[in-house]
């Protein structure tokens, strides 16, 4: 019993610091609408891979991890970042890793796996709602509805499909996990 309590204390202290050590895309908070944040994201580069279905996460993750762990034409290792993004709807589901900010497209090695591609993502406006715990289907659907309803009620138009962003390693206890449902939005003339 005491060992279990000690391990829980170590997890509480170390796991948040491990997640914080991962680089995340840079963004500025523009506004909040209840639980929804409106953000301006800086340009970035993403490694992406298609998913056979909307929930084929492990295969997509393995392909992207393979790329950053040396599965590229240079055998180079690229630092892991957060979050791992996964589209939630549409005919062509995709999983993505954001590349560390120190890289340009010219600096990044070419993926060995032909289903992993690199994409420049321009500056964009995004709406996001954050939640903790496991990203179960019911939670994803609930927070997606919250996000989309809030945007609709405020006359904000979408520019794409919502994405699930997950920030933590799989061994992170549910109460320490951070997840977001995000969607790119149209710029309103008042925030341009």
Automatic annotation (TrEMBL):
Keywords: Signal
Leader sequence residues: 1-21
Pfam families: SOUL (PF04832)
PANTHER family: HEME-BINDING PROTEIN-RELATED (PTHR11220), SOUL HEME-BINDING FAMILY PROTEIN (PTHR11220:SF58)
Name of this protein: Heme-binding protein
Nucleus keyword on record: no
